[in-house]
Amino acid sequence: MFPLQSTRVALRFGDRTLTHAELAACAGTLARQLTGLPRVAVWATPTIETCVAVVAALLAGVPAVPVNPKVGERELAHIVADSAPAAVLAAPQAPLPEGLHSVPRLDVTLDGDTPELPDEPDAEAPALIVYTSGTTGAPKGVVLPRRAIVSTLDAVAQAWEWTGDDVLVHALPLFHVHGLILGVLGPLRRGGTLHHLGKFSTAELTRALAGDGTMMFGVPTMYHRIAEEVGENAELGAALEKARLLVSGSAALPVRDHERIAAATGQRVVERYGMTETLMNTSVRADGDRRPGAVGLPLPGVEVRLVDDHGVTLDDTGAVGEIQVRGPNLFTEYLNRPDATAEAFADGWFRTGDVGTRDADGYFRIVGRKATDIIKSGGYKIGAGEIENALLEHPAVKEVAVTGEPDDDLGERIVAWIVPSGEEPSAEELADHVARLLTPHKRPRSVRFVESLPRNDMGKVMKRALGT
Fold first, then answer.
1. Which SS3 state, helix, strand or coil, does residue 22 take?
2. N or C: which end of the chain has fewer CB within 10 A?
3. What is the largest CA-CA distance in the chain?
4. Distances in whole angstroms, Cα of residue 26 to Cα of each of 20, 49, 110, 191, 222
5. In what residue span(s) does the AMP-dependent synthetase/ligase domain sit (predicted)?
6. Which residues pair with 403 in a beta bridge?
7. How many CA atoms lie within 13 A of 176 on its CB side?
8. Are 272 and 217 in contact (CB under 8 A)?
9. Boundaries of every domain in the chain
10. Which helix (H) or strand (E) holds 88?
11. Contact criterion met (CB below 8 Å) for 31 and 87
């Protein structure tokens, strides 16, 4: 899976580095201790040890379960009971919660010789088990085979012209598809370098990209901070302008932030679309049209279609439907959940639960989640994201989330949750603003001002938590 022989730096965390050859030595030594285990957990702190642990498990052919170090007691208990890890791998200095005390601990060190690496396991062998956020119940363990990881990494490398000469800079958590599979295994697969910032800051990002960094991965909350600052920060602007590629994922990048970054740097951010069960589905190409709000074309080997509520394929440009996917990038199953696995597929197509549209040239756009971002009001099917982007164009709006609530007359009414940028505007002013930019039936019927929006570790707004 990885070319682990070169003396090029593979991993950089602060002043700690490992070359590809050094990574092979310490991960290979650890892999010998893991061989034969059914499954291991990885306490996924943002450290070089987490990367070594995951690579060692992959070399040993042992499925790894990355665990969010901020996980709550109940969720951790579920993950441990469901995945039954034979050991938990952790950095020596990392304290483990009580919920993991029953699992044998194995400290990850950077010592090792140059062992003979094991043979590559079968392509269908489970590589990672990544637990979903559990917004509709207990988290499900998504079993990702080696085939899915390899196909996705090679597909995005083609789309982004990603090579071993690239130095990827990011500060993403290492327990999720974005930060771990794309952000760690991606540069290792190419024989390149990951420079992990530990914690995101525009100052550290500036230094990294002004140095040897060529690519950045981030989530919209990071790009929002960049957009807020880049107009007044010439050093940040110059560093971003120097980068070969800026990629945003895990949630939609607001059009306003996309345009502010482009105006200040000349760089247009590349957006892509993926999820835990499918890894990467679509992306804007490095040499393609980086239009705001679009997540590009299907990646090599991936098929994408839109269907209506009855499962009928929609071919018309601009038609709104559920996104369904099939290809080598798909997961194998939900661990211990054959019922949920069967329910997730329709005639071999994975039902993403996301709703989107397709432009005339085949570019896809994500409207939102079927459950939380599609509002049926007054006989219209309305995407929350369109209204959010419109509200963000108002100077008094800093952040926004749009939801639907039951309404006896309309079926659902549109509710806007606003973090103001200064003095609160009136609800009527904001509703009129949306009606002017879009159409009257898309105006918010209720506007609620809040100090902040609830977000998860990947920066996604947790809409189900609004109003609770």
1. helix
2. C
3. 71
4. 10, 10, 5, 17, 33
5. 7-335
6. 415
7. 21
8. no
9. 374-465
10. strand 87-90
11. no
